[in-house]
Amino acid sequence: MFLKIVKNDFYRKKITTVTVFVFITMAVLLGASATNIVANLIQSMSELQERAVPADITVMHAGEYDQAEIDQFAEKYRDHIVMQETMDLQNIDGSNIHFGQNQTMAGTIQDISFVVQNKKFDFILDLDNEKLEVKEGKVAVPIYFMEQYDLKIGETITVKSGGYEKEFVISDYARDFEMNSSLTSSKRFVINQNDYDEMLEMQAGELEYLIEFKLNENGDSQAVQAAYIKAGLPANGPIVGGTIFLLFNAMSDATVVMVIILISILLIIIASLCIRLTFLATIDEDLREIGVMKAIGISKKDIKNVYLNKYRVMSVAAGIIGYLLSFVLVNLFNGNMRLYISSELSGNLKYLLSFIAPLFVYFMIVMYSKKILKRIDKISAVEALRSDIMEHGKNRKYSFPLLKNKFFSINIYMGLRDVWKRFKLYRLLFFIFAVCTFIVILPLNMYNTVNSAGFSTYMGIGKSDMRIDLRRTDSITEDNKKLQEELKNDSDIEKYAAYITSSYQVKNADGSWDYINIEIGDFSVFPLKYLEGRAPEGEGEISLSFANAAKHGLNKKVGDEVTVRVGGEEQILSVTGIYQDITNGGKTAKAHTSLGVNEEAVLWYIVSMDLAPGVNIREKMDYYQNAYDSAQVNDIKEYTGQTLGNIINQMSLIVIGGIAIAVIIAVLITALFLKMLLSKDMPRIAIMRSMGLTSKNIKHQYMAGTLLVLILGIIFGVLATNYLGEFLVSIAMSTMGAAKIELVNIAWQTWLLCPLALIVVVGYTISVCCKVTEDDDLSVTFRS
Amino acid sequence: MTNIIEALSVNKKVKLGKDNELHILKNINLEIEEGEFVSVMGPSGSGKSTLLYNVSGMDRITSGSVKFKGREIGGLKEEELAKIRLKNMGFIFQDINLLKNLSLIDNVMFPALVSKDADKKAVHQKAKKLLEMTGIEMLADHNITQASGGQLQRVGICRALINNPDIIFGDEPTGALDSKSTKEIMSILAEINKKGTTVMIVTHDVKVAAKTERVLYMVDGNIVAQKKMRKYNGHPDDIKEKEESIMKWLAENGF
Ligand SMILES: Nc1ncnc2c1ncn2[C@@H]1O[C@H](COP(=O)(O)OP(=O)(O)OP(=O)(O)O)[C@@H](O)[C@H]1O
Ligand SMILES: [Mg+2]
């Protein structure tokens, strides 16, 4: 019997029902896909971790060291440390690696090193997650580069450095737990021991070491790191804990999951609103029936059940379909994961976990429907039989009298004032348009922000045209001197400033010593936007990155003091400002030049510069790239672009997806809304036609009204993006070390292109859907 | 005298389901002269409203011909018909059918403002005059929830008159009113008719019919009888007499 009522209702409101159904299905589909991805991520990450056995502590060091001391240390901390292994890296500059037709990897911002597979742990794997065994003359190339330069297995790369030249055949992808992500700034190429030795002999690259520790289950990473530093063991590079790699690996997929879940929630909201709209539009029709049912003594609960069952049946059907389809859809999002984490996503967890989505959606929909149906309680039998009760408004002051209208034709005016008079009805549409604008413009602004030169602000560097990075080499100091000299005399360079980053010891909040990278130089040349305070300008001043200043970091505020050890001497610096930085794990600092360079632990030199007007940046970049072999020359846009490569790519996908979803939702809801509004307004329309208005006149009224709502919705949506959107993005980005993102909005896109596109698409929908039937007998409406 | 409406063998059928048809008007022939005051009576379901809506072009006839001021309107386009309704016809209903969200005077003015070249000032003056004539000028700026049924029907009449129509159609315009309001509304209609506007109304009320000059009697889709009378001269005795004669006439025709 219930099934029959549901069936009847379906035939009566076919389009509405189908739309609501589609929305619920899509919500389940996306929700299930997202949970599916999470399940895959959890399972494949743990598998990858199991196979790769990543180090829990990785110390980077360049220059001399004594393995015996390290062995002693490992022995002493046997309670914590299970294994120790030191990996030798030969750093080769990207410009020395040739591939394809005369291409090199010079453009990359990644540090490239050649290594031999470890013996004990931190293994680099192939795509089947098996330990790589590379034969002589072969090389396994990191996935990042395989993708970046579109390399294939069987192709060759040639390393040319000084007198050394050797061609390697690519035999495998290298899946590297520690250095997979584009957010880690080094990449390891794996070669055979014999090739490695030859390379070493020929001094092809700069030597660097990864001193790695594997801890036991109860090992205290923090304690070991502190002890290591205290023991004065070699560590002039950063010390990295194991969890950061986990985070980096999961980051890009986790971002996708978050976006999908957001969209899914949005769809649930829209489905609920559709249900509400359906109910509002049909309550007048059904009022009489409800009243009669009540009058003949059918209980409220039973009446509600008649309505509720429709949505129950719909949710169950949508749930099943969405759940099943999600296993197809998820493959669209899995590409990245298949490549970087696990080629075989065969875990069973996903079947269980993604079942949460349909259950969640079912309960949300049924609960919301129940809430709406509470209105039935309020309809007494008598009232229901007296129609029109829903319409009786309070005696408000009469606004928008017809004679006040000076600008519009009467029909346009009638449409506009109708929005004001019945805003309750139009409010849903307004909300939808605002949301659609939001989901187009927010990703677009984010994309523009990440893609803009100004984004360097969030990477802890002032805005400049070009930058030259000098990495640690034996000749770094001389190179730097030479470069400064040359820049001083180059009239094409408007201004420049050099910054030296070296590693210092810093006193933690708990009194222990930790390492911190501090950049020194003149920060007034390329000013950085500070969250709080200002840049260090004089002696004894330091500024901290947001993550360093945060509670879980050094826990400092502007005005606090920081104790830093320079060359065995303790210096107390006062914090002058806090800035945002998402590079180097978010933990950086800047100090005035007077702090002095920590000579043994220089990490890198950076020179930022602005070019004189009219100078070709490409040519300038090429010149310095050729003049300084070991340097990396980037324009800032390229630099941010590469560091955030994956994120930018995914962002552009999200922008396109956002636009598609927004358009589909806007079109569907508009069509649905108009259909319901017009059927609800049939009496009103008939009255106007009897007065002599043509259906075209009436159509213009409804078009004007909906277009007004559209424009209001868009304006509201743009404003919401600017304020709420920025807030949301900031929350998400603060985990990465940027606390306050100011979205870049390119005015013509935000204010013109997107709104116009929406107006055109929705406007067309409105003009098509705003059909006032012409040929029916007018009296039919008056009779009912 | 010229005929404002000429209906010739008009049939109206409506589809009820797939192969079920209802024949509502059966070969109706009807002429209404300019300036005439006509009422239609008959049992419920006999097709009175249908007749009104079909000769006024609101509904589409199934076959036959309807001429309005000599012009065939049976096959006119929607837009043309709307134009005729706007300029030449006025409608009043039992349910009054005013627009919500418009004040009473705005309801009256609306049909006049639809024309592109409407002179707002003149329209306003005209509306005020009409409200004055029907005695509700003090309610001009009120909401439709703030007036009684009789007052609202006067607004309905004002709205029907705003464009100076040639004819006013009324489907039981007094059907929902008490006898006092009914009397007042009928005097207004008689007044309008006296000034030259043709009026055609459907009614169940003999008192209402007595104020018209011709009564049509419909049964089962046919006009079975007609009664022509002298125009109402405003005298109470005259009405009494007419009422009685109509009653008698109806009884003769099996009412
Ligand atoms: N569009 C329609 N569809 C189906 N039946 C209709 C339609 N229009 C009218 N009818 C039927 O045609 C018959 C005549 O209707 P009409 O409204 O003209 O009668 P009436 O004489 O005005 O009755 P009343 O005095 O009750 O108003 C009725 O039986 C009615 O149910
Ligand atoms: Mg009727």
TrEMBL record, chain B:
Q: Which GO terms describe its cellular component?
A: membrane protein complex; plasma membrane
Q: Which domain of life is it from?
A: Bacteria
| ABC transporter domain span | 5-245
Q: Which GO terms describe its molecular function?
A: ATP binding; ATP hydrolysis activity; transmembrane transporter activity
Q: Which UniProt keywords apply?
A: ATP-binding, Nucleotide-binding, Transport
Signal peptide residues on this chain, from the entry's feature table: none
Give the family from UniProt. Belongs to the ABC transporter superfamily.
Name by which UniProt lists this protein:
ABC transporter ATP-binding protein
Annotated organism of origin: Mesobacillus campisalis
